[in-house]
Amino acid sequence: MDTVQANNLLNERRPAVADTPVATTRWTVAAIEALFALPFNDLLYRAQQVHRDNFDANAVQLSTLLSIKTGGCSEDCGYCPQAARYQTGVENQDLLSVDEVVAAARTAKEHGATRFCMGAAWRGPKQRDLDKVVAMVKAVRGLGMETCATLGMLKPGQADQLRDAGLDYYNHNIDTAEDNYKNVITTRDYEDRIDTLSQVREAGMHVCCGGIVGMGETRKARATLIAQLANMEPYPESVPINNLVQVPGTPLHGADKLDPLEFVRTIACARITMPKAFVRLSAGRQELGDGVQALCFLAGANSIFYGEKLLTTGNPDVENDRALFARLGLKPLNPA
Ligand code: SAM
Ligand code: DTB
Ligand code: SF4
Predict the structure, then answer these.
(1) What range does the domain containing 256 cover?
(2) Pocket of ligand 3 (CB under 6 A)
(3) What is the largest CA-CA distance in the chain?
(4) % of residues, the chain, pLDDT over 70
């Protein structure tokens, strides 16, 4: 496809119906495939323009992750080292205490993180566990940090409890395109994810929702994932794009590695289609290296996970990120 054809296809974007309250644009998969097909420089130029129209191009939001309950998960997500059924060497850890969580949040704040994200290896929280998470959210909020939690599927009423505790964001990824979902996860449906996301929206919390690439999917599947995120009404405030971290013992270990420039293209497509979202360069930064990360920032990524660990796998350490930010002239958004 040449650039003219690509640009023609981009015009396929359909404006939202006139009476829709939120100004939003519907993206066809073909239009996003056309973005992917642009010459790399044209795609990055366009993404950078959208980025500058909506954000300070040199500011990056810093979120720190903590695994508050690790391993032993009942689900079968093909990418995940925390599923009980895969032998990955991850050590199970029961739900941490509020004090342990607050201590980690305090350290994250001292290092400059503004958002603290608590992740649990659950299909969904039991009520007695949610009560403890509510206490954690209140305590982390009390430190003056934004709060995020990723706890799996929510039952009716649980989103309201989290909102009342002061939770700012709920992370719940669709992970992959709907028609690829069964190839990656069989213990729940794509619809289950959408149902929890609706509950989070209805409770009035911000939505953090993204996916994983590098799982052997086609470019069309990547374009479909981006379309499904961009066509949510409204689209998520925060969009983590993860590059699969291949963990031995998981079914996706050994999947064909994604060309790093294709990962950059995915970030650019997320930026163009979700102009006001924080697009997070998420898992997989260690494997990308500094040069590719710099291209991701140029493509419109403006958030990272900050701190030496994601949930169970490694992440660049704070010193490396500080050095990278200095080399690129980037600054943390709203430093503490
Ligand atoms: N159990 C909850 C759930 O699945 O929603 C919350 C925690 S789960 C680990 C959060 C997200 O981490 C997943 O949706 C997936 O996008 C991401 N993730 C897990 N393992 C990953 C891996 N090996 N590489 C990249 N992302 C991964
Ligand atoms: C997201 O999209 N990525 C983060 C966070 N949300 C919870 C998790 C990445 C996990 C990578 C594998 C691990 O460390 O266990
Ligand atoms: Fe469990 Fe979440 Fe991992 Fe799936 S991604 S196995 S639900 S911890």
Answers:
(1) 3-14+25-332
(2) 73, 75, 77, 80, 82-83, 121, 123, 152
(3) 58
(4) 92
